[in-house]
């Protein structure tokens, strides 16, 4: 997806998140993150957005940790999040396309990386805020949802820190039924290896619309929301060990 489109999505998703948080109230529990209330969600996502803004805005080439300053009082949390989110959108919009700064996944463009990562960060946590509020979830485009699946499988779970490992090697396939998108994940005692194709045999295949794959693989929908063919133990392995 184009960087400008991802920034537009980040803008939309953050606004929806703030609106849902305001409607839910900061003390509301977050069903998709059982240990959190909305105040914890806003504190987390605000700090992450602020961290990304600093890296991009200052062109930092070495990793830094997110700020650990205390979050604002409950009465100011939603407004604080709106301000931090708006600053991130402005920072990304105004950044040099040739910017070189720290990223934690391989990329050919630092700006594209941060636009993509923060768009998906806001989108998944918008789902959390809307789950706290109750009612229907706002939609995703299939293209954006499939991009989020790709970032998760080929990006996050391509790193050594992925915990999705098994002593018995197996192949898990993920198929977006409303997009031309298939991923084949080789599971073993090592970090998963994801290939963007559907060739060869698979021990288990998970399928569904890209939106359902996106939410289920990020553990915002039960894995049983997807169609499963083959060895369901691999699907269960994902559910148990894939948390980021």
Which secondary structure elements does this structure contain, and how are they paired or packed?
Elements: H1 3-24, H2 38-58, H3 74-94, H4 110-133, H5 142-155, E1 170-176, E2 181-187, E3 193-195, E4 204-208, H6 210-217, E5 227-230, H7 232-241
Parallel strand pairs: 1-4
Antiparallel strand pairs: 1-2, 2-3, 4-5
Helix pairs in contact: 1-3, 1-4, 2-3, 2-4, 5-6
Notes on the structure:
A hairpin with a 5-residue loop joins strand 2 (181-187) and strand 3 (193-195). The longest helix has 24 residues, at 110-133. Helix 1 runs antiparallel to helix 3 and helix 2 (38-58) packs antiparallel against helix 4 (110-133). With 244 residues, this protein is α+β, with helices and mostly antiparallel strands. It is globular. It has helices at residues 3-24, 38-58, 74-94, 110-133, 142-155, 210-217, 232-241; strands spanning 170-176, 181-187, 193-195, 204-208, 227-230. The relative contact order is 0.12. The two termini are 23 Å apart. A 5-stranded mixed sheet has the order 3-2-1-4-5. The protein is 49% helix and 11% strand.
**Beta-strand proportion:** 5-15%
The low-confidence runs, each spanning 5 or more residues with pLDDT under 50, are none
Number of strands: 5
Overall structural class, as computed from helix and strand content, comes to alpha+beta
Q: Provide mean pLDDT, rounded.
A: 96
Give the end-to-end Cα distance, rounded to a whole number of Å.
Answer: 23 Å
Shape: globular
Question: What is the radius of gyration computed over CA atoms, rounded to a whole number of angstroms?
Answer: 18 Å
Biggest pleated-sheet summary: 5 strands, mixed
Q: What's the SSE pattern? A: HHHHHEEEEHEH
């Amino acid at each position: 997806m184009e960087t400008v489109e991802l920034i537009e999505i980040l803008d939309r998703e953050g606004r929806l998140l703030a609106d849902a948080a305001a409607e839910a109230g900061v003390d509301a529990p977050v069903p998709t993150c059982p240990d959190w209330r909305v105040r914890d969600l806003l504190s987390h996502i605000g700090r992450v957005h602020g961290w990304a803004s600093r890296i991009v805005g200052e062109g930092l080439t070495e990793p830094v940790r997110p700020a650990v300053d205390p979050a604002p009082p409950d009465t100011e949390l939603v407004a604080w999040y709106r301000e931090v989110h708006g600053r991130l959108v402005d920072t990304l919009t105004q950044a040099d396309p040739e910017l070189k700064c720290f990223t934690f996944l391989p990329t050919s463009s630092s700006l594209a990386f941060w636009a993509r990562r923060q768009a998906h960060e806001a989108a998944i946590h918008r789902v959390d805020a809307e789950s706290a509020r109750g009612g229907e979830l706002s939609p995703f485009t299939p293209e954006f949802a499939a991009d989020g699946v790709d970032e998760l499988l080929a990006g996050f779970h391509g790193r050594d820190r992925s915990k999705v490992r098994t002593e018995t090697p197996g192949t898990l396939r993920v198929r977006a039924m409303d997009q031309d998108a298939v991923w084949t994940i080789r599971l073993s005692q090592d970090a998963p290896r994801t290939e963007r194709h559907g060739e060869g045999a698979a021990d288990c295949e998970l399928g569904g619309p890209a939106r359902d794959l996106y939410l289920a693989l990020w553990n915002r929908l039960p894995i049983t929301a997807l169609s499963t063919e083959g060895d369901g133990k691999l699907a269960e392995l994902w559910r148990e060990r894939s948390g980021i």
